[in-house]
Design brief:
The chain has 292 residues and is α/β, with parallel strands linked by helices. The chain is 41% helix and 12% strand. The protein has a single domain, classed as TIM Barrel.
């Protein structure tokens, strides 16, 4: 199926610059092995040129796990700057706050939305060492709910620390969808929650939550479409057709590879239209961003 004339929105894209590499420094060597790629930072202009060549518009992802790693964040101000400098490519960005920073995290959350206008918040429970249903995080989610913005939460396994002794101390249980994601969705029914990645090995748990909770959606970043678990692949054109969105996890996977993979799945033009842009436009109000 031909996808080149269709608007393509990538809702999960990392900056791939030195600022981002500094934030994920403990995991870089493991990621090189996991993805069989050099994994070296590019200049900002090189990243933008790659994305523009791929004919994709993106939501960048900030990263802050400073309490766990001691690394400086890839900050919210930085990703907001990427958006402001390259509005044709970067539609907006997901803020990141380190939940263990307590009141400072709440203050930063207000800054990210009220001052910077970022679209919402990304959480990496494995790297951050938390579960989103931890009662200690409730004040932060209450603030995010009050701000009226969505959250993007990683589910399933990760390449961060993969293959190293002890996985660099990271615990995979933090990203298990049940009960954490389900509890968060039940406790905050007005909060839009997007599950990031196919969620393996708990893909069916994500599917169950998406079908039960009207405020939970899903994006497929970090996996080649040829490796999607069967239940996800089967339900994309069926029960998930209004819930699913495209994400890349760039630079983990190239857009060329992902678009070629999607084109081989045999979905109709209507389904691909939903996956690649119309669901994101509706769920995240990105249609307004295009017209602005």
């Amino acid at each position: 199926m031909q996808l080149t004339t269709m608007r393509r929105i990538d809702i999960h894209c990392h900056p791939n610059t030195a600022e981002w590499f500094n934030a994920i420094n403990p995991y870089v060597e493991a990621l090189r092995t996991y993805w069989h790629r050099p994994w070296a930072p590019l200049s900002e202009q090189q990243v933008i040129d790659e994305l523009r060549k791929a004919d994709v518009q993106v939501l960048m992802v900030a990263f802050d796990t400073e309490t766990v790693t001691g690394c400086p964040p890839c900050s919210n101000d930085y990703v907001a700057g990427l958006r402001d400098r390259h509005p044709d490519v970067v539609l907006n960005a997901w803020a990141s706050v380190d939940p263990w920073k307590g009141k400072d995290a709440i203050t930063e959350a207000e800054h990210a939305v009220s001052d910077l206008g970022l679209i919402g918040f990304h959480f990496h429970p494995i790297c951050g060492g938390f579960s989103v249903d931890d009662p200690r995080l409730r004040p932060l989610f209450e603030k995010i709910n009050e701000l009226g913005v969505p959250v993007l939460i990683d589910v399933g396994t990760t390449g961060m620390g993969a293959g190293t002794p002890g996985g660099l101390g990271r615990r995979l249980k933090m990203s298990r969808p049940m009960p954490a994601l389900d509890d968060l969705a039940a406790d905050f029914p007005q909060l839009k929650i997007i599950a990031a990645h196919p969620g393996w090995p708990w893909t069916d748990e994500v599917l169950m939550i998406c079908l039960h909770k009207g405020n939970v959606f899903w994006e497929t970043s970090g996996w080649g479409p040829e490796y999607f678990p069967e239940s996800l692949r089967r339900d994309i054109p069926r029960r998930l057709k209004d819930k699913i969105m495209f994400g890349s996890d760039y630079p983990s996977l190239t857009h060329k590879r992902l678009f070629e993979g999607w084109s081989k799945l045999g979905y109709s033009a209507e389904v691909m239209d939903r996956v690649f842009h119309s669901n994101a436009e509706r769920i995240l109000s990105l249609e307004l961003a295009r017209r602005a």
